[in-house]
């Protein structure tokens, strides 16, 4: 009887939502971070061609009005099918690091707020809307500052015009596209280290995107959990809905950030407000929403798969904890 009770206590400690000690909390934060990184990597790989189409439309204003299908056909004709995956290497690395950092800080902040709620004697330890937004703001700001250089490199690689578009002498080989490391070193060498933080201000403004997304997700999930246990399928639909609204609201700033990322050393170094006003003046409101079709589609699908994959991966981690706890008995 005592042995059975000990097993139950170990299992409860390994699967509790808010771990009771620092080591357990740290382990739980890392588990969420790894699940988020894995989910982000899988969802990014599935939807990357849509990212390419959206980024091209954002930074090439003269092509912003073309349809998604026409843009895809043009890229394939000019650069081959692999052109749709330009910069995939840096994107996979970037999304893994981004999601790991984000989810680690988000879970760390959330656990601190939940503990504060318990200490204050609040009936429910679930985060309020304001607390969810605070957790998202802290996690998002930390993520932007740490990962912005990765996304500058990725945007440069995704938006580059392939050398295959230019005339090549018969028998000669087109210039090879630069690698991720090559692009990174070229930016530092030609434009300076500070250029890796181009667009960091609009990126910080865009922290409102995950704040909206995760706040909506958390509140909808809390509402659903009052009735039944949520599943990865539920997370798929809730994540899609949250991302749809968040991306639609913040898209103009996504466009401004992409333009600032690709501004070369010879071009003007406009700040966020100047870039925003210039696009509005030269291209109108439609310029701020160039490529929104593929971007919203990609964002919604990616977010849906991300939340579904993350929940599935986290549940796998919980099962591994249970198995490990049972073996220790």
UniProtKB/TrEMBL annotation:
<dbReference type="GO" id="GO:0044610">
    <property type="term" value="F:FMN transmembrane transporter activity"/>
</dbReference>
<feature type="transmembrane region" description="Helical">
    <location>
        <begin position="83"/>
        <end position="105"/>
    </location>
</feature>
<dbReference type="GO" id="GO:0015217">
    <property type="term" value="F:ADP transmembrane transporter activity"/>
</dbReference>
<dbReference type="GO" id="GO:0005778">
    <property type="term" value="C:peroxisomal membrane"/>
</dbReference>
<feature type="repeat" description="Solcar">
    <location>
        <begin position="234"/>
        <end position="316"/>
    </location>
</feature>
<keyword id="KW-0576">Peroxisome</keyword>
<keyword id="KW-1133">Transmembrane helix</keyword>
<feature type="transmembrane region" description="Helical">
    <location>
        <begin position="133"/>
        <end position="153"/>
    </location>
</feature>
<keyword id="KW-0999">Mitochondrion inner membrane</keyword>
<dbReference type="InterPro" id="IPR023395">
    <property type="entry name" value="MCP_dom_sf"/>
</dbReference>
<protein>
    <submittedName>
        <fullName>Mitochondrial carrier</fullName>
    </submittedName>
</protein>
<dbReference type="InterPro" id="IPR052217">
    <property type="entry name" value="Mito/Peroxisomal_Carrier"/>
</dbReference>
<keyword id="KW-0812">Transmembrane</keyword>
<dbReference type="GO" id="GO:0005347">
    <property type="term" value="F:ATP transmembrane transporter activity"/>
</dbReference>
<dbReference type="GO" id="GO:0051724">
    <property type="term" value="F:NAD transmembrane transporter activity"/>
</dbReference>
<keyword id="KW-0472">Membrane</keyword>
<keyword id="KW-0496">Mitochondrion</keyword>
<comment type="similarity">
    <text>Belongs to the mitochondrial carrier (TC 2.A.29) family.</text>
</comment>
<dbReference type="GO" id="GO:0015230">
    <property type="term" value="F:FAD transmembrane transporter activity"/>
</dbReference>
<dbReference type="GO" id="GO:0015228">
    <property type="term" value="F:coenzyme A transmembrane transporter activity"/>
</dbReference>
<keyword id="KW-0813">Transport</keyword>
<keyword id="KW-0677">Repeat</keyword>
<feature type="transmembrane region" description="Helical">
    <location>
        <begin position="236"/>
        <end position="256"/>
    </location>
</feature>
<dbReference type="InterPro" id="IPR018108">
    <property type="entry name" value="MCP_transmembrane"/>
</dbReference>
<feature type="repeat" description="Solcar">
    <location>
        <begin position="27"/>
        <end position="112"/>
    </location>
</feature>
<dbReference type="GO" id="GO:0080122">
    <property type="term" value="F:AMP transmembrane transporter activity"/>
</dbReference>
<dbReference type="Pfam" id="PF00153">
    <property type="entry name" value="Mito_carr"/>
</dbReference>
<feature type="repeat" description="Solcar">
    <location>
        <begin position="127"/>
        <end position="223"/>
    </location>
</feature>
